[in-house]
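Students often ask why inverse folding is considered easier than folding. One informal answer: many sequences map to the same fold, so there is more than one right answer. In these notes we will look at a single instance of the problem. The structure comes first.
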């Protein structure tokens, strides 16, 4: 498994632990982070992504997602 594949699987699995909506914005695209297929087509290289998290466990989800992105050296900004 490549590093990219490992990152995608871990990001998706982590997102699925939360009931909040977790959406990744890149350019004008919005991808549900819980969708592995969506991540495969979007998560490439050195881009900067913006994460939108809304729901009852949003704060915990934001912290967990930030940790996973950093672990895999992916640049992400958490939207307020």
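Output (designed amino acids):
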């Amino acid at each position: 498994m490549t590093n990219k594949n490992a990152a995608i699987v871990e990001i998706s699995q982590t997102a699925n632990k939360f009931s909040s909506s977790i959406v990744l914005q890149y350019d004008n695209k919005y991808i549900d982070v819980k969708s592995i297929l969506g991540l495969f087509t979007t998560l490439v290289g050195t881009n900067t992504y913006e994460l939108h998290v809304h729901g009852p466990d949003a704060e915990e989800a934001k912290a967990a997602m930030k940790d996973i992105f950093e672990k895999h050296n992916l640049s992400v900004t958490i939207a307020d």
